[in-house]
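Re: [ENG-882] Designed sequences occasionally contain unexpected residues at chain ends

Forwarding the minimal case from QA. Structure tokens:
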């Protein structure tokens, strides 16, 4: 009897903890949505989407240079990265892909590393990181100062961090020359197995974005809150990647009617906007700890009505 009662008490405690955890998670998600809407997260996501398109070519060239530095072969890095781009985005028209490839081929050297050109590419790519830092400042309730040196340095290091993360993510999630280099060493064969694993890619993304949400803003962010934001973004991304085909299947006819030959380009554009919205929603979840869902004046009115 005593043992059965003990099991019953343990079951009740576990059920209560599960309920409290579910309630806490749902409450934080709602708080994040409220903050996202109040701080116009959809507008910030649209601005970052624009800067992503504007800086896409220099960022891609910088990315290729980084991979080329690792494998000591810019031509191989170019083929590898372009294949990853083609696989990672929704299918676009061949003329768009060929146009991007021609820009890359005209600007990229077959060997060596031109530090002056890399510095220029970093500068040209900073539109993405600057818009992200600006958006993070807005969502974390920090007045963006714009042209101050501190913000510029923050944007610079943010861009470097994003580039390193993208290089690592590509090396982990896609077979290529990095895995071939590792396979040449006996100790590296185990790493190759880890590299070809989507679960490891998700863990890497979770760690990166948790650290990003913690250290990118000017305010102090608890590690637990940053982890919540990182987990939210990764979960939204995985859901979006798994269900994006539904949108394409049921709404592509409308897109074709509206945009004609630019339909696939618009699909890719919508995908980038979705990713940016998920990113800023994750940031909102991370920074929404003190956000009031019900304003104090409305809450006071409810209390008065209950007393009557």
């Amino acid at each position: 009897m005593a043992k059965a009662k003990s099991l019953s008490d343990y079951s009740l405690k576990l059920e209560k903890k599960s309920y409290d955890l579910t309630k806490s998670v749902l409450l934080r998600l709602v708080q994040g949505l409220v903050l996202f809407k109040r701080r116009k997260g959809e507008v910030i996501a649209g601005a970052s989407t624009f800067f992503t398109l504007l800086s896409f070519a220099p960022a891609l060239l910088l990315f290729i240079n980084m991979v080329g530095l690792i494998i000591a072969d810019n031509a191989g890095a170019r083929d590898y990265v372009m294949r990853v781009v083609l696989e990672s985005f929704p299918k676009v028209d061949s003329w768009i892909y060929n146009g991007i490839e021609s820009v890359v081929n005209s600007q990229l050297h077959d060997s060596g590393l031109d530090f002056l050109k890399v510095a220029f590419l970093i500068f040209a790519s900073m539109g993405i990181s600057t818009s992200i830092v600006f958006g993070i400042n807005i969502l974390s309730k920090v007045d963006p100062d714009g042209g101050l040196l501190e913000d510029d340095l923050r944007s610079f290091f943010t861009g470097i961090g994003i580039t390193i993360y993208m290089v690592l993510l590509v090396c982990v999630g896609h077979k290529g020359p990095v895995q071939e280099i590792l396979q040449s060493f006996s100790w590296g064969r185990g790493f190759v197995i880890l590299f070809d694993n989507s679960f490891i890619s998700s863990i890497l993304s979770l760690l990166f974005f948790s650290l990003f949400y913690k250290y990118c803003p000017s305010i102090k962010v608890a590690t637990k809150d940053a982890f919540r934001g990182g987990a939210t973004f990764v979960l939204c991304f995985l859901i979006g990647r798994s269900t994006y085909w539904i949108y394409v299947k049921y709404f592509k006819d409308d897109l074709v009617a509206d945009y004609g030959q630019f339909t696939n380009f618009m699909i890719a554009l919508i995908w980038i906007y979705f990713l940016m919205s998920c990113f800023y929603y994750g940031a909102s979840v991370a920074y929404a700890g003190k956000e009031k869902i019900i304003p104090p004046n409305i809450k006071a009115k409810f209390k008065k009505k209950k007393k009557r």
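QA comment: On inspection the terminal residues look reasonable. The mean pLDDT is 75. Proposing we downgrade this to a documentation issue.
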